[in-house]
Amino acid sequence: MKLSDFDFDLPDHLIATRPAVPRTSARLLVARGDEITDARVSELAQFLRRGDRLVLNDTKVIPARLTGQRHRTGAQGQTSARIEVTLLEPRGDGVWTALIKPLKKLKRGEDVVFNADLSATLQDVIDGQGVLAFNLTGHDFDVALNAAGAMPLPPYIAAKRPADAQDKQDYQTVFARKKGAVAAPTASLHFDAALLAQLADMGVDFTHVTLHVGAGTFLPVKVDDVTTHKMHSEWGQVSDRAASEIAATKASGGRVIPVGTTALRLIETAAQRGEFGVWQGDTDIFIYPGFDFQVADGLMTNFHLPKSTLMMLVSALMGQQTVRGIYDHAIAAQYRFFSYGDASLLFPK
Fold it and tell me: In this structure, are residues 149 and 63 in contact, taking their beta carbons and an 8 Å threshold?
């Protein structure tokens, strides 16, 4: 398998920079093997049945993108530099790892001031990432971050427009519960309370799991032989309740359908020991063609970047030729792509 096997030409105008309004008005491509149906997310109930279980990632995106100023007094007097920070992972006691641009403009021990309430000191640099100690912790930090921070939009959206106040609502699922993600589980952005209630009324069940999506989800694959790619890791949890619910659905013959690649990667991680069950920790599972799925019977997901690990994942589920046909259809039919784009519902043969 070569990286070029997962490439395709995508017209730039099909990259969505805002979501559909309302959320459920987004288009939905339903693929059952090679059979393709064009629909809307609002019509999702037509393609599900009583006893199906949707697995939802309840992670909550934090406003992790910060812009501040570094001030320095030297031979040239007082100088300042604009510093952009994307928080990655908390280390406790107000300390975070972060991407810092430009990192060369900041020295260890120097402060970055984001607003009157929030600042941070660069403690260390490890593997190109900064270690920042903030002046606030706990609830005070959360309040200050919400005021100073912006949603960490994916690079392909951020290159077209800056994040704004509307993104704090748009780039968050309606069932987000547990803070920690710096990217949204984007397939879940299509759901609203009314659609969830409609599905529940028809007998579709729901299970919540947590995978804190990291900035690594946007890292490009740089090796030609995709099997040698080193996957980033992300923290996740399948609780005892979640494991019991999913196991019960499998035992009764129902379909387990993760909403989003993050939920799929997590539940398949929990099955890697040979038996599906409770799981918690960092997962770097890499799913590409040839993978033996243990739990997922289908997948609801958005349309992914060329040559990405997520293209490899959907190709593993559906088959490379089938996915090629699905994406050719989506482009010809002018579906909107990536995080704020349209959705697909995929069932392998």
Answer: yes
Task: Give the residue carrying structure tokens 């959907």.
Answer: 314
pLDDT digits (tens, 9 = 90+) for 117-156: 999 999 999 989 999 999 999 999 999 999 999 999 999 9
Distance of CA 100 to the CA centre of its chain: 21
Omega of the bond prior to 102 within 30 degrees of 0, cis? yes
Report how far residue 70's alpha carbon sits from residue 114's, in angstroms, rounded to the nearest whole number: 9
**Distance in angstroms (rounded) separating the CA atoms of residues 321 and 71:** 55
Q: Which is nearest to 237 in space by CA: 209, 217, 264, 260?
A: 209
pLDDT tens for each residue of 301-347? 999 999 999 999 999 999 999 999 999 999 999 999 999 999 999 99
Q: 154-163 burial, b if ≥16 CB within 10 A, otherwise e?
A: bebbeeeeeb
How far apart (Å, rounded) are the C-alpha atoms in residues 190 and 208?
16
With 0-12 / 13-18 / 19 or more C-beta atoms within 10 angstroms meaning exposed / middle / buried, residue 257 is: buried
Q: Using omega within 30 degrees of 0 as the cis cutoff, is the peptide bond preceding 162 cis? A: no
Contacts of residue 72, Cβ cutoff 8 Å, sequence gap at least 6: 78, 79, 80, 81, 110
| pTM (2 d.p.) | 0.93
CA distances from 49 to 52, 164, 267, 308, 334 (A): 6, 38, 21, 31, 28
Tokens of 234: 């992300």
CA-nearest of 218, 161, 152 to 17 is 161
DSSP 141: H
Residue 126 tokens read as 């490890």
Tokens of 199: 């599905």
Contact criterion met (CB below 8 Å) for 246 and 267: yes
Give start and end residues of each alpha helix (H) in 38-113: none
